Amino acid sequence: MPNPSSCRPVYTLHLRLRTALGPPTVPWIEPPLGLRRANGSLDLIGQSAALHPAVCLVLSYGRYATVLGSPVLQRAVVEEARRIIACYEDA
């Protein structure tokens, strides 16, 4: 019988953060690979056991975060952003 903890989904994350801040707090399965680019941006490549914290992370960086190579995370970020916009449509 498989270990229930190993049956949880795993989300592969590849983010580019264009800010001087260090790696964010996400429930990483292992520490992410951080690649500092010449332009000062930081590419993070790793896997997370939870999608929502990664979505919150991306949205917290606003236009300074780009989701690369992770369609599941891209869709989740777009859906959450639409929910946020809907909250302000009547304002």
Describe this protein with a few key phrases.
single chain, globular, 91 residues
- Name the strands of the widest sheet in spatial order: 2-3-1-4
Helix proportion range: 25-40%
Terminal Cα separation, in Å?
53 Å
Oligomeric composition of the shown chains: single chain
The rough form would be described as globular
Name the helix and strand elements from N-terminus to C-terminus, one letter apiece: EEEHEH
What Rg is obtained from the alpha carbons, in whole angstroms?
15 Å
Structural class: alpha+beta
Rounded average pLDDT? 81
Number of helices: 2
Q: Uncertain spans, ≥5 residues at pLDDT below 50?
A: none
Structure description:
This protein is α+β, with helices and mostly antiparallel strands. It has one domain (4-88). It is 31% helix and 23% strand. The protein has a four-stranded antiparallel beta sheet with strand order 2-3-1-4. A hairpin with a 5-residue loop joins strand 2 (33-36) and strand 3. The radius of gyration is 15 Å and the shape is globular.
Short description:
With 91 residues, this protein is an alpha+beta fold. It has two helices and four strands; from the N terminus they run E-E-E-H-E-H. Helix 1 crosses helix 2.
Topology:
Layout: E1 11-17, E2 33-36, E3 42-48, H1 51-60, E4 65-67, H2 71-88
Antiparallel strand pairs: 1-3, 1-4, 2-3
